[in-house]
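Subject: sequence -> structure tokens, single chain

Hey, anyone have a minute? Need the predicted structure for the following. Not urgent.
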Amino acid sequence: MPFSEATVDFLTDLRANNTSDWFGANRKIYETDVRDAAKWFSAEVVRMLEEKLDAPHRARIFRINRDLRFAKDKTPYNTHVHMAFMKGDGEKDGPALMLGLEPGKLTFGAGIMQFAPGRLARWRDFVSGEGGERVVAALNALEGLGARVPKPDLKKVPAPFPQDHRAADLLKRKGLTVWIDQEDVTPALGADGPENCVDRLIVFAPIVELLGEIE
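Reply:
Had a minute. Here:
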């Protein structure tokens, strides 16, 4: 079953009624219009990515339950659907194509949220050399399509690199993600949703490939 207006309606209602009691009373709707739809959607996206990129892929659907251990906001549920698509032989914390669906917003992206310690060291070695120019070129191409790149995590370039290093922006990052947002969610809905979204996801493939070089 594809995503539908019922999917968006459920997430909209969940925003207004984010309690365990409401969710329990509407669990059947969630299971059909969100959980099962996400499983179908992700399987179709994986199949199409494998055809277009000629490589095995796997999907991860993030849980709707929020991790409340360190959260100030104690509402129990996410009001979005988030997915990640990784090469089938990639590591758990490796680069991924990413998709987010929520009321009034559809997001496509790619990258790694936070580098593991070993990868962070390899990232800095990579971007301090010719790899940095390749990453900048890929990001510039995506920014030309309207993509946004979050600000660096650090205020200063980490030692032993000089503050005026040509790759200063990249060296100050502890992860790298790039995103394209749109308000119209209809491309993700219906039977054509996976194909519509794959066409938007594969523009991020160069970032995944670059990050894959520093595994």
